[in-house]
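Hey, I was hoping to borrow your eyes for a little while. I've been puzzling over a protein and I'd love to understand its fold better. The fold is given in discrete form, as structure tokens running alongside the sequence. I'd be grateful if you could look everything over and explain what you see. No rush at all, and the record is pasted right below.
>
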Amino acid sequence: MLPLSKPGSRYDFAAVLREHGIGSLRRYVPQTLQVNVGKLCNQACHHCHVDASPKRTEIMTRATARRVVKLLESSPSIDTVDLTGGAPELNPNFTYLVEQARAGERRIVVRCNLTVLFVAGMENLLRLYSDHRVELVCSLPCYTAENVDQQRGRGVFEQSIEALRILNRVGYGRANSPLVLNLVYNPLGAFLPPPQAELEARYRDELRGRFGIEFHRLLTITNMPIKRFAAQLQRWGEYEEYMGLLVNHFNPHAVAALMCRTLVSVGWEGTLYDCDFNQMLELPMTWYDAPRGRPPTIWEIESLEELATRRIGTAPHCFGCTAGAGSSCGGALE
């Protein structure tokens, strides 16, 4: 388990910010609402910071989904709704959330693992995606079967390639197509991602040449030293070395673009978080104005704009978002 920041610790992120004259992190007006609809997934990837799997039972209810939609209606600053999980498509309220978010003409992003397209009952996904111009962000940690299957499970690469071909056939990933298909790379070990533009060019050459697959962008995301990946680092005896790598590559220029500045994260049960990683560590937003004995939830605010200017909670894993070129759900920050 990743220790929280303590004054004087080498992992004290707040202290490093002060050393660089940055001060505490505070929110801007929120632009993105990221909704984690639960931890149920048809995969159980080794690097997963959510600890998602087919055995998880945490799942967002219709009542919570309705409250999310109500907040969207009263929050005009939100232009992007980012649905994640688990596999968000497995939540019975997924279609409802997509339709309601699109009714407000917002950009909809779905974190898709690709293989969910082949799960029984998911036959209407392609039509839902395309009808509502859902932007897909799909995990593909490498362009070779050996590396993907090592991280995500046997046979996942073959299914992922077939899913990408299907998406291409309906227009996703094609040049000038409004159906956006982005891929996600995350390292297979305890190291930082390579430069995003260079790796994207390599992915494009490999996937186009070997499989005839097209996509729009490649997003590189640093593995966070939390949950399943943290446990893996401990087994390898590389936890301290990896944390040292992140700390030593702290990039102060990445701080201004951190996703927590403009993103609000909502947990499957309605608790508010500064980011998805804090959510997985159960570090909710804090009532900094006055202690109330409980974390804030979507039922205790009337608009997401109320969260602007709040102080952002930090911990050692924040070094993962500020190492090297920086990292966010939208890829490299620089």
Q: What stands out?
A: Residues 13-321 form a domain with the TIM Barrel fold (CATH 3.20.20.70). Residues 196-211 form the longest helix (16 residues). The longest strand covers residues 107-112. Confidence is low (pLDDT under 50) at residues 1-5.
